[in-house]
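Morning run. Coffee first, then this:
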Amino acid sequence: MVRYLFFILAVASCFLSPAIALFIGIAFALVFKSPFLKQSKKVSKYLLQVAVVGLGFGINLHESLAVGKEGMIFTIISVTGVMLIGYLLGRILKLQPKLSYLISSGTAICGGSAIAAISPIVKANEDETSMSLAVIFTLNAVALFLFPPVGRMLGLTQEQFGMWAAIAIHDTSSVVGAGAEYGAEALKVATMVKLTRALWIIPLSLVSIFIFNRNNHKKISVPWFIFLFILAMIVNTYFSIPEVVLQGISFLSHKLLSLTLFLIGSTLSIAAIRNVGIKPVVLGISLWIIISLTSLLVIV
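And here it is:
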């Protein structure tokens, strides 16, 4: 019975948003023990990499860099600042280094996409990945409903709100949703600025290789999927690909990402949640408040 339910939920997750798919996977893990624990861990690792590469076809280098020129300095400072503050708060809260690193990465760049790209590089286990994704997606859901009314209350222009949403809201889907709620111009600005920040997955990935392998005397494991991600962006930028093909790749990538997050969530254990407790949530909220207030002050 549990096996059949697992398959039904796995298929259904393909038609849900990544956040909902993750939470369904976690709920399944807490009510039932996954009948395919080992298989889910192995399959999710590769599906995650395929999904990340597919998402690269949705990024145009020229457009992203053009939008990001004016805010390049602030982007560098904000990304670096969030990572450093996340590291310090993680030490203070005595969180597992990889868990705090993933939450910081998701906050600094682009939410679940950043965590999906970084987790296999730092060799995070399924519990660390699940917990960090759960924290980030929960804050995304809150931001999607909270930011538009706050923006109107503060009298932010379309451009100001678009910039603020792109910097302070983690995941691209929630950024797009908040921007669309605020207005057409806000949506345009928010989307382009967010895609620019998404490019920081590349340098962060390369830096992460050395940070988490500096004490390892074995040969450094190269995350080849990151280079495929870069290649996907180059192909999308410099080659004329039919729109229907790009839409198909994007569609499949998002479906794979949802399925992957269900599988990752299904491997979470009650023991893991008890082990980390409320600390990941405290870290996530703290970083979110810092980046939200700081970016708002700079923009206004």
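The chain has a mean pLDDT of 81. Good start to the day.
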